[in-house]
Amino acid sequence: MLYWVLKYVLLGPLLRLLYRPRARGLENVPAEGPVVLASNHLSFVDSLFIPLLVKRRVVFLGKSDYFDRGRTRWFFRALNVIPVRREGGMAGEAAIQAGVRELGRGLVVGIYPEGTRSPDGRLYRGKTGVARMAVLAGCPVVPVAVSGTARVMPLDRKVPRLRGRVTVTFGKPLRFDRYAGQASDRFVLRSVTDEVMYDIMLLSNQEYVDEYASKVKAQLAAAGGPAAHAGDLSHPGDTRDGPADPGRPSAPADAQTG
Questions:
Q1: Buried-most residue among 1, 57, 66, 88 (CB within 10 A)?
Q2: pLDDT per residue over 131-168, tens digit each?
Q3: Cα–Cα distance between 141 and 131 in angstroms, integer?
Q4: Cα dist from 250 to 65, 169, 188, 210, whole Å
């Protein structure tokens, strides 16, 4: 109930007034049934604008730390955030299963395959949790590209600016029924993930980096650069990845050239 109050009465109207968000390709989001929204991740407020523009209720997976603080617990519960731990291993598997359960209820699950916000505006290698969820649930994945949110709330800010223009673009649904029963095959998961990331790259026009964003953040922090920002609503993913082509995600077969 509070989710809809925030969306249509309290927070939603304010976001629309300040940032005039635009949705492109919204018709690509199925009107019913389970679906994964797989988005690039530039800013904390990505997780506000995606559900604002999607007519259906969207459930996000978020780090459990948010629920340890009384001042933020109510807000993330109202946003339908599922608390999950991100230490990897069993915690990562628990996150995937939590998403699969919500998909089994016919809901929309939003995740960020990069696992954390981009440290520099480029698109980073996706973790294979998005693929595992889609194959286990047998549902489509809609690639999503958010733009403008990094200006609204850059990584170094704790509160949003009161100006900016946000656009959320929804691509055509990707189906992976051909991989049913292969949710443990790391090469299948890598292939599916790269196909999703390829479409996100085309939608967002971001430069692709074949490294994990979390690794780059750790390197920056170690070098005395911008600290790794851990405050994300992100999907931990399954990191048992197979090889990937360098420089960009592997294109789906019908998109490869030469």
A1: 66
A2: 999 999 999 999 999 999 999 999 889 899 999 999 99
A3: 9
A4: 34, 21, 12, 10
